[in-house]
Amino acid sequence: MKHIIILGDGMADHPVARLGGKTLLQYADKPYMDMLACKGRTGRLITIPDGFLPGSEVANTAILGYDLNRVYEGRGPLEAASIGYDMRPDDFAMRCNIITLENGVIINHNGGHLNTAEGEILIKYLNEHLGNEQIKFITGIQYRHLLIIRGGNKHIICAPPHDYPNEQWKGLLVKAEPGWEEKRDGNRMTGNETAKLINSLIVKSQELLEKHPINKERRISGKDAANSIWPWGGGYRPDMEKLCYMYPKIKNGSVISAVDLIRGIGFYAGLKIIKVEGATGLADTNYEGKAEAAIKALKTDDFVFLHLEASDEAGHDGDLELKLKTIENLDSKIIKPIYEEIKTWKDAPVRMAILPDHPTPVEVRTHVKEPVPFIIWHDGITPDNVKTYDEMSCADGGYGLLRLNEFMKTFMKD
Question: Of 13, 52, 217, 274, which shows the fewest CB atoms inside 10 Å?
């Protein structure tokens, strides 16, 4: 049997008064998710281990069955793998957002939805002025880029910018972890030295970006200025076992995502990275192209991990209407065509799972550490009594409450 996981990043939510006290999954028009909940079995999943923050790098890695206490190194190294940067043993890789500051406050974590062409120009500009043998800026996608610090120490405390909208940036600067202030990690810098270097790069980036022609043009057109870097999520090169060794049924597999982080997880998991033209990670992504790519991959591969970022971005923006639209698009443009295709594959049956990695509630605008609802369906599965797919209904599902790698073990089980 083949397997596909369809993941709507940040899709789960809280009850919203504007929706009559319903969550977005309860309110949205999603006939295929509800049909699969009725035909399949459901439950809830704890995706964040104790002691970890509810980041997408943590949740998606846990969903795929990995022990975060053993393999976690932050999202920077994962995104480095996706970009194609081969980390050296002494490298320290950080996700490097380009964000918007105004009057000393973080206005958004994405530079006003900076596009990749603009982001590439700005990152290359920063690398020309701030890069050297120790420091390197590398282009990623849109506002998501990479900072490499040779000899950097991972024992620092960083503030993910999407967790702190409308807060003063100076109070969120990097600090050394307690006990690592003057301590080295092997031959690497101390925690204080690393934090001081990163903070100086943040300040210098603001001076450079403020005067860049791209930001002058953005202001004239009424867009937010992409006027500061914000590095976070750093780590060393991870040591992850390939999925084919963990789950013998997966002899080959693919990952489909517009997000470097997810591609990086796929790379270390031994999955082939499939890039879809027009996949943006936003609500305007090429849903149809992703569905077609997933169907094509399932014809040759045993396992496909299909990731959609749009709901998470809408949640971070606090955009209720847009997040509803992303959920409905996932249903009609992704799940519908894939289900209608694979339900006919009697000689090569497919098991499908649908879930988010974590909630990103529109009224909170950041990730929260709560269980997420999931569906597992395949031809011949014994249904439970759940009739709709949402946070509350799935609490009564036949799988109950699973934790971490229990989901993948259940999903891959005969």
Answer: 217
Evaluate whether 317 touches 363 at the Cβ level (below 8 Å). Answer: no
Contact 98, 228 (CB under 8 A): yes
Residue 267 — φ and ψ, nearest 5°? -60, -50
**What is the distance of C-alpha 79 from the center of its chain?**
10
Q: How many CB atoms lie within 10 A of CB 15?
A: 16
Produce one character per residue of 111-147: b if its CB has 16 or more CB atoms within 10 Å, e if not. Answer: bbbbebebbbebbebbbeebbeeebbbbbbbbbbbbb
End-to-end CA distance of the chain: 9
Position 385, amino acid: N
pLDDT, tens digit, for every residue of 203-214? 999 999 999 999
Which pTM value belongs to this model?
0.81
Lookup: tokens for 172: 């969120």
Mean pLDDT of 108-117: 94
- The neighbour count for residue 280, using CB atoms within 10 Å, is 19
Q: Is 17 exposed, middle or buried (0-12, 13-18, 19+ CB in 10 A)?
A: exposed
Question: Where do we find the tokens 């060393």?
Answer: 236
d(CA 129, CA 297): 42
